[in-house]
């Protein structure tokens, strides 16, 4: 998910397919931030008197989805499970709906979704977010430079705020996981808090070793040959100190063609190494479903879709 630095003026993103029309309520974001934007954004301007949310949500959805090749549509829009509509019927739920519902359950009201130029259908599907009870804005990552770079695009708009981050191709339970992680984060006065979920596939994910007595994170191991623990981080909450650490980490990477994609696990370990307050909260009663592979997609559908959905 990547977006190179844009102009210093914030402009409404123009779709590259002529048939795409943005919802009328999505307007350019006005901001007095001292930071120049690294991408472009649209968001609804909240009316006066709107309650300040506990945190700002960020969902990186610019990935290529190469693990599902030759499937070429946005994986975020793959239908997984159902949700009741206003008439009591079951309506299909897209993969990205799950993490957005989880964010809303944590009290998050404003969410930035980061897309690539190939992902305009995500914007068309989600629109302004009214149907989810959210105010959604969009950033565009112009080239695939990794998840950390995608997240850094939000820095001009979330600087000074607590950030809740979840991935659009994952489904996590319990439904109040973000609310619990936010409470944990605030109680620990943490700079970065990771939600940890049990998994039978830690070698293909990113297990986190914590001190069981203090919950302090000791290491994040990305796709280990032998997993030290049977968990994976699945959601994250961080404070402004980590937002700046992430930005500084990326600024030190080599520039130019051939630059490698960075891993978010590397940034987490950087945070642990420099001594900022990084904690992990195990959700022993939780579940983490990564739908980025065909096998895991089938498993998620088996778990979440009734054999005979009601009409």
Structure report:
The protein has 311 residues and is an alpha/beta fold. The chain has a single domain, classed as Spore Coat Polysaccharide Biosynthesis Protein SpsA, Chain A (Alpha-Beta Complex), CATH 3.90.550.10. It has 8 helices and 15 strands. It has helices at residues 95-105, 120-126, 147-152, 155-158, 177-187, 240-251, 264-274, 294-304; strands spanning 27-28, 41-43, 56-60, 79-84, 90-94, 110-115, 135-140, 163-166, 170-173, 192-198, 208-210, 217-220, 231-238, 278-282, 287-290. The chain starts with 26 loop residues before the first strand and ends in a 7-residue tail after the last helix.
| Overall morphology | globular
Q: Helix count, per DSSP?
A: 8
Overall pLDDT level: 81
Number of strands: 15
What radius of gyration results from the CA coordinates?
19 Å
* Broad CATH class: Alpha Beta
Strand percentage, roughly? 15-25%
Instruction: Give the topology string: H per helix, E per strand.
Output: EEEEEHEHEHHEEHEEEEHHEEH
- Kindly report the spatial arrangement of strands forming the biggest sheet: 1-2-7-6-3-8-13-10-14
Reported for the largest beta sheet, the result is: 9 strands, mixed
